[in-house]
Amino acid sequence: MEVDIEGQVRAELSKKKISHNKAAEGLGMSRTAFENRLSTRTDFRVKDLIKICDMVTLPFSEFARRAEERDYKKGEAA
To answer: Fewer CB within 10 Å, N- or C-terminus of the chain?
Structure first.
């Protein structure tokens, strides 16, 4: 089973109105590097996902649950 990490990152940032530039800055990487992660060219590191969770004030465990649920719902629609 694959989990839609990238989609969940986008969703959580959008809910908090955090731009990709701001997220990249918070992670200490360029916007290009961040976009590469969102487009799955490069995998997110766990420490980066934890930082994103801190940015959006969401426990990592809840982020993971939502990402798994998102993937499950995507599979149901197919």
So the answer is: C
